[in-house]
Design brief:
125 residues, 5 helices, 62% helix
Length: 125
Amino acid sequence: MDFNPNRAIYLQIADHICEHILIGTWPVETKIPSVRELAIELGVNPNTVMRTYDLLQQHGIIVNKRGIGFFVPVDSFSQIKKYKRAIFMEEDLPQLFKNLYLLDISLEELKQKYEAYVLTHYKSN
């Protein structure tokens, strides 16, 4: 995994885990790699992975079954969306608004681009 030096590693690992859950690499009700296993796989300190797991537990994205390991709970998809949405609203959206203002992009133009994007990438059956 290539890490972005402008963002905390534990948050990037959280994104990595969320992505694996959403794409089905780690399906609902299955065990995810242990702290030590994931640390070795990603080439990071186990404390960094533990910090990530703590964060994801706080948000209900993973659960710890004491003595067994960490698992993906049934409602993980909704919890991931809730977590990612909060980050988007607090961090990404203000930057988007700033760029819209500075570049004089109207909401109507943005809406048209968004609708075209969704049609091209998600509704092309």
